[in-house]
Design a protein that fits this description.
The protein has 449 residues and is an alpha+beta fold. Among the domains are: 190 residues, TATA-Binding Protein, CATH 3.30.310.50; 110 residues, Arc Repressor Mutant, subunit A. It has 17 helices and 16 strands. The protein has a six-stranded antiparallel sheet with strand order 2-3-4-5-1-6. Strands 7-12-13-14-15-16 form a six-stranded mixed sheet, sandwiched between helices. Helix 1 packs across helix 3. About 6% of the residues have low confidence.
């Protein structure tokens, strides 16, 4: 899965000339600087001498970002470095802190640490020794969204005392807890007919074999539910004379053992083993647990998220605060996504509290997941709220099993690309040229190879 990994350290770049020296050093270590090479390519095409550090610094200062937003960008401009496997990003946050990132697939922490080591060597080699003394090259992992490009929202000096700052109230969360057998059961309950049978059985408590077979429609459905310990068989003993209920036993063998085999019906006088015996079905404790509150749905969605590249540790269940709850929260790809799960139609009455929670707790995206559909009134409400709020609230609808599976995959991919775009956007604004098409083409090329 495409990801951005970022580190930060107390190692400042005071001006653009210092940055140019560092980038030149990194170039000699095999890191190709995209923006600098764009500038030098322009000079080469115009048959001019290769620009020195001062000329490039002047070009950056006079770029559209500097001209149209004077004083806004006070820090030096870093660069992007493309290698065969990943893109590295060098971005000074201010004169005291430096952020580095890697964009790629898989685990790149070791590669990013190597890049950091090269930066440290470059600073120690190219900078005055007195400048280096106050620097601390103890690189720490950090969210590129919350720090590197949210610099005007979060006080950077507090980072080393409190690694993550958030304005939202602290929510009580629980870790997803379930077994591989629960996953199999959840996948079975995605089937509408099977799920409806389980819900009906939960409502009536016990069901005769003939009624259960008729409602389940297929005998193998009952066998699947039995094999996963979602339902259990019991036996109803009734009088042959007037059909009144005598008792319920857990198995046939109970009637052949003492004291059951010696007992007689109080009406007809027959021994219990000679009376009518019928199979009945009831939910097991496991079945009740998965159906109550649609726990099976939380398990199913969690597994879909993990299958599509979301880190397990970033998925939280049942967030609670002040009597409010959110089914699933995902904090990954430098985004916060809230999922509202419904094993029925998502109506207008569900829409207001959901959008309120997204706003209150700082959600990047809200995802409505329903096994049925989102009502017209609910969609209209979301559209009206979106027009009236700034910033706008992003809502996605996933309706029905097939759309849910496809939609989860699309959402995770969009979040991964959004994380990369956040990193690239800062550089595009500074130089007045959109770098995203270049990075996007690199991504598409790597994914297709």
């Amino acid at each position: 899965m495409l990801r951005v990994l970022s580190f930060i350290a107390k190692a400042g770049i005071r001006n653009q000339i210092e940055m140019e020296k560092l980038i030149l050093y990194l170039g000699k270590r095999g890191y190709l600087a995209i923006i600098r090479n764009m500038f030098t390519a322009i000079f080469s095409s115009a048959k001019l001498p290769e620009p020195d550090e001062q000329i490039i610094a002047n070009m950056i200062a006079q770029a559209p970002g500097g001209r149209f937003m004077p004083g806004f960008f006070k820090d030096a401009l870093g660069d992007l470095f493309i290698t065969d496997e990943a893109i590295y990003v060098l971005n000074p946050i201010d004169s005291n802190m430096l952020q580095v990132s890697v964009i790629g697939w898989g685990e790149y922490e070791e590669a990013l640490q190597k890049f950091c080591k090269n930066i440290e060597e470059g600073i120690r080699t190219k900078f005055d020794g007195r400048r280096v003394r106050g620097m601390n090259f103890a690189w720490k992992p950090v969210s590129s969204h919350h720090l590197g490009y949210g610099r005007y929202l979060y006080p950077l000096e507090d980072f080393f005392e409190e690694e993550y700052r958030h304005e939202a109230e602290k929510l009580r969360v629980s870790e997803p807890t379930y077994s591989p057998e629960d996953v199999k059961a959840a996948n079975l309950l995605v089937n509408t007919e099977i799920r409806q049978f389980m819900v009906r059985l939960a409502q009536v408590g016990k069901m005769m074999s003939k009624d259960a077979t008729k409602l389940a429609k297929k005998q193998d459905v009952l066998q699947q539910l039995l094999s996963l310990d979602l339902i259990t068989e019991e036996y109803l003993l009734t009088c042959k004379q007037n059909q009144h209920t005598i008792c319920i036993v857990p198995s046939k063998e109970h009637l052949t053992k003492e004291p059951m085999n010696s007992l007689r019906c109080s009406v007809c006088g027959r021994p219990f083993p000679e009376e009518n015996l019928q199979v009945i079905y009831t939910l097991t404790e496991k079945g009740k647990r998965l159906i109550d509150g649609s726990l099976w749905m939380s398990i199913w969605i969690t597994e879909l998220l993990k299958e599509n590249g979301v880190r397990e540790k970033s998925i939280k269940w049942k967030l609670e605060a002040h009597g409010e709850d959110i089914d699933i929260m995902v904090q990954d790809f430098d985004s916060t996504i809230f999922f509202e799960l419904k094993d029925r139609e998502f109506g207008l009455g569900d829409a207001y509290p959901f959008i309120y929670r997204i706003t209150r707790y700082g959600g990047t995206l809200g995802v409505v997941v329903t096994m049925d559909k989102v009502s017209t009134d609910a969609k209209k409400f979301f559209e009206e709220e979106n027009r009236s709020r700034r910033p706008r609230i992003r809502i996605r609808y996933l309706e029905g099993p097939e759309n849910i599976q496809k939609g989860i995959s699309e959402i995770v991919k969009d979040l991964a690309l959004l994380q990369v775009r956040r990193v690239i956007q800062h550089f595009s604004i500074r130089i007045g040229f959109d770098l995203w098409p270049i990075v996007e083409h690199w991504i598409n090329t790597k994914e297709s190879s």
